Amino acid sequence: MPMVDFSAVLNSDAQRVWSVVKQFGEIHKWHPSIAESSIEGGGPDGSVACVRKLTLTDGAVVRERLLSVDDRALTLSYCIEEAPLPLDNYVATVRLVAITGQEQTLVTWSACFDLQEPNTAEHYQALIRSLIVDGHKGLQSLLTQ
Questions:
Q1: 79 Cβ contact list (under 8 Å, min separation 6)
Q2: Contact of 3 with 112, CB cutoff 8 Å
Q3: Which of 41, 49, 50, 108 is 20 to 30 Å from the Cα of 93, by its Cα?
Q4: Taking Cα atoms as reference points, which of 56, 61, 60, 64 lies closest to residue 80?
Q5: d(CA 73, CA 143)
Q6: Every domain of the chain and the residues it spans
Q7: First CA to last CA across the chain, in angstroms?
Q8: Does pTM surpass 0.70?
Q9: Closest CA to 76 of 91, 95, 51, 50
Q10: Coil/strand/helix, residue 135
Q11: Class of 3-143 in CATH
Q12: Is residue 42 predicted with pLDDT exceeding 90?
């Protein structure tokens, strides 16, 4: 099972970062690859099992289900329900750690998935990593406004 991990520091306190990240249906506000996002069915944003619909900048649609949210540990996990990618069992986790005595937060992004097509691991690991890095940069940009 291929995995992608990325960790970096955001120049903002952990509670402020968490207030943005845990708004599961609002990712379009900070991720440059996502043109629109919303919670399906009108349910509450951020509740476990809610599904967000993402329309990417290229018009593709992705549906993701929120698997867990832990306000105390500043962690959330989600899976892809539907996407135009030859991947199965995609699960991603975002973890925040406050850096003591500073207005900074360590963010760890991780994703694992199964491949439908053999010998494509490097390609899809690079693609997922690129999406994570772009999201991280977009989040930092939003937080510094």
A1: 64, 65, 67, 89, 90, 91, 92
A2: yes
A3: 41
A4: 64
A5: 20
A6: 3-143
A7: 38
A8: yes
A9: 95
A10: helix
A11: alpha beta
A12: no
